[in-house]
Structures are given as C-alpha cells and as structure tokens.
Amino acid sequence: MSTYTAITLAQRPEPGPIGRETFNVVQKVVPSAGPGEIIVSQTYMSLDPAMIGWMSGDTKSYIPPVEVGAVMRSSGLGEVIESNHPDFALGDRVMGMMGWTEYFVSTGQGLNKVPAGITPEQALSVFALPGLTATQGLFNVAKPKSGETIVVSGAAGSVGSIVGQLAKADGLHVIGVAGDDEKCQWIVDELGFDGAINYKTDDIDAKLSELAPKGVDIFFENTGGAIQQHIFEHMNAHGRIAVCGMISDYAASTPSAGPNWIPIIKKRLIIQGFTMPDHYAKVPDLLAKLTPYVMQGKIKYRAHVLEGIESAIDGLNMLLTGANKGKLMVKL
After folding, report:
1. Range of the domain at 47
2. Is 123 part of a structural domain of the chain?
3. Residue 247's closest CA among 107, 28, 39, 50?
4. Which pTM does this prediction carry?
C-alpha cells in the first residue's frame, strides 16, 4: 500500500521561534479520486508570513485558525495525476490552497490552472498570493498617483518587492526598507527602487529626510516594529497607509507600541488594513491588472527554494528572521 507524507499542526506555537514540536509528520495512504474529484501531486509549497498567524488560536482573525491535528494550511502548485472532473485533465498544472501535503484530493474548488510557459517559481512568486496582495494593496487601498513618494517596509520580501516595482512603473518615487545591505542593494540595483534603508544599521529618520525630502505620501506596511513610527512621522497631509502585515509582531509575546494618533487628525491620514480572503472574487481583475506589468518585463522576482516537505518547518522561522532571499517556497 503506497503512502505519502503530510504535516499536521500538533499544538499552538509559543511566542518566539517556532519549534519542530509544533508539528507532526505523518504518513497517509495515497488516495483515489471519487466522483467529481481530482488528485493533485503537489510539487511546490509556498511559505508566507500569514501562515504564522493561521497557527494561532485567534478566532477573531480574518480567517479561522488551522485546527490542531489538521494538515497545515498553505498554498501550492502541483500536477493533476487522476481526474474524475470534466474541467481537469491529467497533466494539468494547478495552483491553490493545498496545505503541507504531497497529495491533495479536491473537487477543483479554489484551484486555478497555471498557464503554459510560467515556471513554478514565477507562479508562486508573482501570480499567487504575493502579486495579488501587492496589486490589491497598492492600487485599491493606497490609490497611488504619479509623482508621489511611497515607502515600502519589507521591501525585499515577496509582496514588498512587487509593490515597489508596480509603484515605480507608475511614476512614483519609491523607497524600500530592508534588513541587510544585500537586500537594499538588490531592490535599488535590480528592481529600480529610488532608495533603500537598512533598518538595522541606518539612522532611519535621517535617511528618510534624505531620500524623501518632500515627505511620504504612501506607506505600505509589511513588518511593523520600531521603523513604523519613523515612517509615520514623515507622512504628508492626506497620506495613505496600507497595512498588509506585521511580521515583527507575529511571534512576539507583546506587540510593539504603535504611533501617537494625534498626527492622524492633523494630517488627515487614511489607514487601512486589508487581507486577501476579502478579495478573492476580484482575482481575475487583479490578474488582469498585474499581468501587463509582468509581460512588459517590469516585474522581477527571486525565489528562495528549500528542498523536501519537512524543510517547511524550519523554513517558517526564516520568515521571522528575514533569512530568506526572495519568495520562500518548498520543492517537494
């Protein structure tokens, strides 16, 4: 009897680094497709910061938590190896929420076919959650205008790097914040950002004054932490802040203190948090908006690929420390 590997959530993680005891590696019997079902052999799994929040027991979040004992939630890409579904043929490549598992049984709901000519790395780095999130957050939340200045935290990350490139392509002055000199050099030299700040070594306030002498119109927030207050203080009147992520606080026992709210009144700032599950119905429109930028060569990416399903466990900690260089994923 053939088996495959899946990884389930064994317990809620404690604050701090995520230990291997948080998960169970289990063996399951390879399934067969029932009526109207397909079997997908997953080849790549995406590792995203949101997954850290999904493991918590927070029932008031935007999406129900992963249940203890259930396969860990994640998006991924794979190939249809058995089909009793009229819309899916053997060999079709599909992408969607499949979880930490080598095989996935599906009715096809929530799965999208991956067009020919798109590599798995490009699919997960650009056309999956990172690109959709960047497109929704920048154009529908931040509402950029040519000539404005945008600061992107987590700028070398999967979402931030695309936000910056989209903004640059639309005529904005783009400043990225990252955690080491190599990442700062990459977003400027390779992605075309106008400037970069290393939040670990630079004087953030001084660098903002240098790189954004006219102030900041848009702040695309991916990380939280101490840098948030510096950028907040440089916001212009009627500025917009799109709050996409707070990775520095996801595993912290005590969240970082937020900025004083008085400037929100003085500067008439708009601050909006957003998450993609609210906007899945817009996916075709978001892809239609994003794809021309990609086809015109305006969106570059890099993938950080780990090998083997169990590498996902330690891989989550790379998101917390910023050790990954590019979109983090696992090749099965």
Report:
1. 3-114+302-331
2. no
3. 50
4. 0.92
DSSP H or E stretch at residue 286: helix 283-295
* C-alpha span between 159 and 245 (Å, rounded): 10
Do 138 and 262 lie in one domain? The reply is yes
Q: Provide DSSP, 160-229.
A: HHHHHHHHHHTT-EEEEEESSHHHHHHHHHTT--SEEEETTTS-HHHHHHHH-TT-EEEEEESS-STHHH
268 shares a domain with 207: yes
Give SS3 for 5.
strand
Tell me the residue ranges of DSSP E strands in the chain.
Answer: 3-9, 23-29, 38-46, 75-83, 93-97, 103-106, 112-113, 149-153, 173-178, 195-198, 216-221, 235-243, 270-273, 303-307, 327-331
236 lies in the same domain as 306: no
Q: Is 90 helix (H, G, I), strand (E, B) or coil?
A: coil
Residue 124 lies in a domain: no
- Assess whether 94 and 133 both reside in one domain: no
CA proximity to 89, closest of 109, 73, 108 = 108
Clarify whether residues 110 and 134 are in a common domain: no
Question: In the structure encoding, which two tokens stand for residue 3, read together?
Answer: 């088996």
Regarding whether 133 and 110 lie in a shared domain, the answer is: no
Residue 179 CA to residue 206 CA, distance in Å, equals: 17
Please indicate, yes or no, whether residues 195 and 309 belong to a single structural domain of this protein.
no
Give the chain's domain count: 2
Please, what sign has the CA dihedral across residues 201, 205, 211, 216?
Answer: positive
Output the domain CATH number for residue 12.
3.90.180.10
pLDDT tens per residue, range 17-62? 899 999 999 999 999 999 999 999 999 999 999 999 899 888 888 8
pLDDT, one tens digit per residue, over 262-315 is 999 999 999 999 999 999 899 999 999 999 999 999 999 999 999 999 999 999
**Half-sphere exposure for 288 (CA within 13 Å, toward CB):** 4
Whole-angstrom distance, CA of residue 263 vs CA of residue 226: 17
